[in-house]
Specification:
Elements lengths: L7 E4 L2 E4 L1 H11 L5 E8 L3 E9 L5 E10 L4 H23 L10 H10 L10 E3 L24 E12 L5 E9 L2 E7 L2 H10 L2 E12 L2 E11 L2 E3 L14
Parallel strand pairs: 9-11
Antiparallel strand pairs: 1-2, 3-4, 4-5, 6-12, 7-8, 7-10, 8-9, 10-11
Helix pairs in contact: 1-2
């Protein structure tokens, strides 16, 4: 059986490969490998999906995420979940190298991004970080946001908070969110930093921490947290591929 040829669409003067084409080429090259999808969030307003590409030993070798808003366009009113899953698969395959146009985003994703611009009435523009303002730690508790935020601070988006406690009674929190624009699970064990996270979730903070892996999943461990000062990004009326949210 001959190898399937890439299917390319031109959008706003740039070529993009559709997701179905990427999947077909991947299946032809690696019929024994798996594409796994996981719904990270399925709410009234938005859907978040994760796609994982596995090797012959069923170990992950590429991961992609996607987010869709239910009120963004006619298609998403009935098929936001399907669109989101497809976009995550397209990104994962793009990361793996199935992107003949050298673009992780596919034509399917770009078309949706264009149609969704300016049509998210319940969402707000992503803020542009300014100089972080430190949040003072609670009295008698160290390790929080004491002093000005140093260089290397990451911008952390907080979406949903989970309170946790170890069998020995140690409290910690897990947050679904993003670090510097990358979706990732966030954890914190420091009392002062946890207070800042609780007070600003959902929202955005600046933080210092470390990337680690827990049970095969990447996490960001916050060790210090700072309040953010931010201003809305000016809305653009014309399409620019730098606005594509993936």
């Amino acid at each position: 059986m001959s190898a399937p040829q890439p299917i390319i669409q031109n959008i706003k003067g740039k070529d993009y490969e559709v997701v179905a084409s990427r999947v077909a080429r991947f299946r032809h090259d690696h019929p024994e490998r798996a594409i796994l999808t996981e719904c990270i969030h399925n709410g009234e307003d938005r859907v978040v999906y994760k796609a994982t590409i596995c090797n012959d030993s069923h170990l992950p070798i590429a991961v992609g995420h996607a987010e869709e808003y239910r009120n963004a366009g006619m298609i998403n009113k009935t098929s936001a979940t399907e669109n989101c899953e497809t976009s995550a698969i397209g990104r994962a395959l793009g990361i793996l190298g199935y992107d003949v146009c050298n673009s992780i985003a596919s034509a399917d994703e770009v078309e949706r991004a264009i149609s969704q611009q300016g049509s998210l009435p319940t969402s707000t523009p992503a803020p542009t970080p300014r100089s972080p303002t430190p949040a003072p730690p609670p009295t008698g508790v160290g390790g929080g946001a004491a002093g000005p935020a140093p260089d290397g601070t990451s911008v952390v988006d907080l979406r949903k908070l989970y309170e946790n406690e170890t069998p020995k009674g140690t409290k910690w929190v897990k947050v679904l969110g993003a670090v510097d624009g990358q979706d990732i699970e966030i954890e914190c064990w420091d009392d002062a930093a946890m207070q800042t996270i609780r007070s600003n979730c959902p929202g955005q903070i600046a933080a210092i921490g470390e990337h680690r892996e827990f049970r095969g999943k990447p996490r960001f461990k916050v060790t210090r947290a700072y309040l953010m000062q931010a201003a809305p990004v000016e809305k653009k009326e014309t399409f620019d591929d730098s606005d594509i949210p993936f």
